[in-house]
Amino acid sequence: MKPKSIKPDELSKIFAELKKGDESAIGSYLVKGVRLQISKYNLSGAERVQLLYKRRRAQGMCIVCGKKVTKKNPSTDQLYRLCEEHRNKIDKGTK
Q: Taking the CB of the first residue and of the last residue of the chain, which one, N or C, has fewer CB atoms within 10 A?
């Protein structure tokens, strides 16, 4: 993912979130042409994937490809976790 451009005064907000232990501070930032990457240390592959899926779900993106998901599940009224293409391949293909 591309780094998010922020202003130098916004760094204090990110550091405050880090002090609280908030996971929303995790990410890649661009400050005056310098990339600042904040991530957890020594994560296993499964933990990294879990964080990626969690972040994509929160943003309403397909967990596989990252496309914007538009359809909602009628029973839960939440966005599906997969785009229409991957729902057809993965979810509907297993039935």
A: C
